[in-house]
Design goal:
It is a single chain. This protein is of the alpha/beta class. It has 9 helices and 5 strands. Strand 4 and strand 5 form a beta hairpin. Helix 5 crosses helix 8.
Amino acid sequence: MPGWLGWIVIAALLAGTPAGAEPLECPDPRFEVLSDDDALAQKVCAFARESAEKLAACNVPISEKRRVRIEVVTEMPEKCLGLYYCGEDKIEIPLPEVMQSMRLSDSSLSHVSPEAFFRSIIVHELAHAAFDEVPCPFGSCITASEYVAYNMQVMSLPEADITIFETGLDKSKKISRDFLNPVILFMAPDTFMTWAWIHLNQRPDACAYIDDVMEGRVRLDYERP
């Protein structure tokens, strides 16, 4: 979830940033990790590199000129499993055990293992970081950003988990762009995720369509009064 959603001030007040820790510079120079747990920081470095490879393979690149900081914190705003600060190259994610305690039992991804889900949230937030470089002709392009982030999150999961996820979907349901809007995103994010996945997989080439969104050839947002 990106930081423009009004979470920035809340997160600054609530998030438990590691005290006194120095950021670990990852082997991939695009990333650094701030955590009180050195072993976890190294694992997040590895996850970030793997996530960036998955994103780039589907036309969602993280520029080699970037340095994105991932902070592993003890607290997050309610229901917020990850937070990207737009324009700041900064991501906050909760400790794995905190993330696990925040997950909803009725989520469409509740079957995913804790580690695979933790990785998928890193993919989601790094997708927001990649989308942050996409010019937006409107006040915000939140629908497109979340569309890319949720779809890349699901795409990054193990094949068996994707199969289980899809079992509960009506993939024959025609999903138009009008279904994908901020109202659904805010009120029912799980529904937004499932509809976004169905919509993407109704395109002839999923990664080519993601590229169209990233390049602005396809617009999922519009000017709002």
